[in-house]
Amino acid sequence: MQTPLSRRRADSRDGESQRYERRLGEILEHATDIFHEKGYEGASMRDLSRASGMSLAGLYYYFESKERLLFLIQKHTFETVLEQLRSRLRSLDDPQQRVRAFVENHLQYFLKNEKAMKVLSHEDEALKGDLGAQIRQLKREYFRLCLQLVEDLRHRWPQGFAPGVSSRIAVLSLFGMVNWIYTWHNPRTDGDPQALARQMSDLFLRGVLRGPLPRNGHEAGRPAKSARNKIPESRPRTRSFSNGHHHADR
Q1: What CATH number is associated with residue 198?
Q2: pLDDT tens digit string along 210-229?
């Protein structure tokens, strides 16, 4: 049982944690701006110090290097996208709708965070050692989640999957379609993320599925079998989200 004193201490720790997370988010936002403007190699810790309003000594106290800041930017981005996607998928069972949710989630986040997308794409090779390994693991997780969605689609679409098209190639093609959007998207002519996701999802689904797509986006007929089949691990080696081509080890 908590005493009034222990509750106050817990509230104080929670408040400190929230302030720290808020300040960390501000620093990462400033670091993203600097890496976007100058590139990772061209940016210095002094540039990051000026942008964040933190002393150089203070910056080094919390972040031993600019590599650490780049790691935190990439980690935050991937974890946020994965968390938001899983939240969307929980309420969806239809495999077409789950693929559409993947595309919309990806586009919404990266059109809202175009600078972060550019930093991820252009600074893909900068992280080495353990930091790089942690980001590669998050990328593999994202790749596998998308691969499972396409496998679900293959198993449950009554008319069949496009002959000769592997799930892996379909997923790599989908990443190639959505990853460079920040370089060309014009909201005045291309529409908002929802409209864009609808069109790009139609392009992808009409390419991999045989037969007409139902008008409401749901399957015609009952699913052939459960979509939760386990798929072989593919060990992808990504070069960015990916940088236009989601490379994977063969």
Answers
A1: 1.10.357.10
A2: 877 766 544 433 333 443 44
